[in-house]
Known about the structure:
The complex is a heterodimer of chains A (301) and B (235). In chain A, 69% of the residues lie in helices and 8% in strands. With 301 residues, chain A is an alpha+beta fold. Chain A has 2 domains: 2-53 and 162-300, no CATH class; 66-151, no CATH class. Chain A is elongated, with a radius of gyration of 30 Å. In chain B, the strands form 2 sheets. Chain B has a 6-stranded mixed β-sheet with strand order 6-7-8-3-9-10, with helices on both faces. Chain B has a 4-stranded antiparallel β-sheet with strand order 2-1-4-5, with helices on one face.
Amino acid sequence: MKAKIQIARHAELPLNEDKANFFLQISTAISVFLFSIALAAYFMTSSMISSWNKNIVDGLTVQIMPPAETLSEEEELLRTNKVISFFEGLDGVLKVRKVSNEQIQHLMAPWLGKNADIESLPMPKLLDVRLKDGKTFDFEKASDSLKEFAPYASIDNHGLWLKKLIKSAGSLKILSLFVLALVLGATVFSLFYAVETSLKVHQNIVEILHVMGATDSYIAKQYAIRALKVGFVSSLIGIGLGFLALFVISHLSSGLETGLIGAASLNRFHWIFLFSLPIWCALLSMGMSFFGVKQVLRKMM
Amino acid sequence: METRKNILTEPIVDIQNVCIRYGKDPEVLSDIKLTLEKGSFHFLTGKSGAGKTSLLSMMYLALKPSRGTVMVFGTNVGYASRDAMAGLRRRIGVVFQDFRLLEHLSAYDNVAVPLRIKGMGENEIKKRVKELLSWVELDKSMDKICSTLSGGEKQRVAIARAVINRPEILLADEPTGNVDNDIASKLMKLFVELNKLGTTVVIATHSKDLIAEYNYPQIHLENKGLKIIPALRRI
């Protein structure tokens, strides 16, 4: 540890004066910015897909259409309870819950406004049915039985259209991964190029150090320490810009929020990972520089 | 007993059938053979372009021969790993004709480089470097950036850097070319003292006065070849 500090204090290579430093700082900051956005997109689509998958597997929605003629409150309750008991009697059903008027109002808010009087509108009643295991639940059989038992009710198997959404989101997830790989590749390439350029600029000093017995690792350490500093500072700037962009995107999309988009959120693990990006980036820059220098030195001398 | 005898008599540098050429140019040195025993002292002579710098470069392991075998400290450098080569170089001190100092660093830091490469502690480095810079009369200039030093001062820094690590071989290319007679004499005394302590010394020079005054054997390069001119008398 002491030896490393000494090297950092007495670096023989004037790397801080390299013109490539500015280029490296800018490119690293931009890379980290793009990486953070792509990573957030990846995390969000992953959590969305996982949430949708859970919905497919774990639940279904039942619509109870409003009656043609006006019924008393008791009669309406009886109608609803009949359907609830039907589902409670089925194998594989965990829980049946009536979706409250407040929740329906919230769901309909984008179309009807926040203050719409739901009760005065001929809206269907909704039941949220939670299943023990959606994979083994027989939707068709339940749907046929329901038609006979309560023809005014129908199962809305959102799994069908959710599957299409999941497929589209899956493509988005692959695209984010592709962007992540591209950004990572571009960062590694620019770092390697910067190292190669710098070694050519300082070839004379490197040769002198070699003659005095410096190993490739001794020279590479000086580059690694410079890359650690530059990588950390630049990625702090990049991640700062990334968070700003995420905040703006989240603010702009808040007006479009629905039950589905609400699932596109970042959990604690995702935030920790995004916040720790500067550390990962600094460590990656350090490692890449170290091995890059050794590689280039082997070719050069 | 036999093994001990072999160790004691093992040459420090053993060059066999070596040729040196740059690219497709004609050979600079051809089929040369040279053996340097531990504690020997040689002047390296020859006209400009005779291959003195090439031979020295090969001995301080900066140049690979086009053909032939070079053994340094008993290691065949043709088969040594990069780290092993670095280890061998740390045992060699080099004074370049053009000094090759790290111009952006101070005289102190230039002289300290070999010790830092070796991993020595800063307190020990400070003690050794100050002592040596003081001896070569550069104690007042040790904090000056090398680019601001005179030619003679630079040469003394280069020599101090070469000997600070107490090398087993000292290779010097015209080490007294840019200093006045007093300093030149002092530097030569330093080389002689190091030699007495066991350092093998090779000094490339054009100075007939220097060769006559110290009268060590000469490695003379001529017509791409090499011959040893023995000393007439030992000091």
